[in-house]
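Task: encode each sequence below as structure tokens.

Item 1
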Amino acid sequence: MAQSFEIGQKLPATPFMVFNSFGVQMCLSECEKYVMCSSLNYNLKHFVCELNSGWKTESLSWINDDEYVYHEIPRPINKVCGAETCNADSRCVRTAFDTFVCVPVVCTDSEPVITNGIVQYRTYMPSSITYGCSPGFVDCPGTWESYAGQSYCFVTNQVLSWSNAKNICYDMKAYLMEIGSQEEQTWIRSKATQKLWFGVTDEGSEGAWYWENSRNAPTFTAWQPGEPGGGGGENCAVLDESSGWQDYPCTYTFQFVCEK
């Protein structure tokens, strides 16, 4: 190990970037590419590279950890990158044409505000922001129907997968319906005649069905004879045309009912 590495030490800081299955020289090379990288922690046992934006100071000292080595990289605030100078939020990248460019890796600008929108994903290489609707912004395409103190939205103008139907319900501040009694099921069937997704699933617990929203096991069921019978490939359920429950692959598309 090079003399500049502090063996058995690490900086107790939150890294701004972590790489797995990295060699120590690869870790050093990666740190040198990021202008904001001032030091690194390297885990010798698990080959994990942690890039830090700070150094050891009087208020932030090393801690002992036999699995780690620590290294500091003195550098100016800005870094020359070919004909460019990268700032602290950029990485110097060598292209296939043997030129150098500064690529932003951290953006300090706040996201643009979109009315009734929330940020779901953000990337920096390439730069992109994906927005979703704020919960409650999407409303029932029809009217909310009331039964026993609950409200139901019958989405019969489109068919979606179980997961997408669940997300639409979430956007309404609701959830895929939970059927609690024969009376409730009879009322639901009187409002819609096609197959309907509802909120029961055994995803992640094969054979043990539960309500996705409340996480409770159903106290009322109406499985058709031989159902559920799809095994691991059929983890969601529909209320069929004859008011029975059948399990289906969650990727199939059906109408659905949201409840709140």
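Item 2
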Amino acid sequence: MSDNLTIQDIARTRSLLVVSDFDGTIAGFSKDPYQVPINQKSLKAIKDLSRLADTRVVILSGRHLEGLSQVLDLGAYDITTVGSHGSEDSSRPRTLTPGEREELERIHTELERVIDGIEGAYVEVKPFHRVLHYIRVSDPDAIAGIQARAADIDTRDLKVTKGKNIIEYSVSRATKGSWLREHISRTEPTGVIFIGDDTTDEHGFEMLADVPTALTVKVGEGETAAKTRIDSIDDVGIMLEELAYERQQHVEAKALGL
């Protein structure tokens, strides 16, 4: 754990914000994005946390909200879902402008040309993004060709983000970092934990790097601005399970005046 904050420290804060990425953090990967395995320890823990006083749980995903709802059934639990890296907030919806729609149609056409004739590659449609996927492409030369042609696209004012086997093009400038900044400013939690695995989560890690009441957790390998690191999705489940237990103990003790 971090030299500065531990799970026990975060659990004992007055007002806790728990934010987690979805894919690669509480769910594994699959060639079919709608058949990903969800870690059941993590799922139970975030549901348990959402029931506790002064505790807010958010799933902050790169998926669009409709797609996220197809793989993550949260039922009646009070858990906020935020999609498209912060562009879509289930609690504060917004719509595209005509200019944004036109730009998305243009980039979609360009991306279809990039992958024309390549088996396994496809373009995913999200409300604020178009996403080039090549996880199903097995030929390394074909992947290199996709990446090279994608690099030549006129992206204009689009935000381009490279992830694991994807390249994403967005008309929104929102990042996980900008969403966290706005949400924390508006809700003023006294403690924050943010967990993620991908390059897009680094925006959140960087935003929270100098926040002394925040614990940021990188899942897996790679350079990171997170304050601490764990190895795997299974470790996320163990950590969230511990957080839910410690938070429940704190909330119950506080209710009893202890």
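Check on item 2: The first helix runs from residue 7 to 11. Residues 12 and 250 are 6 Å apart (CA to CA).
End of task.
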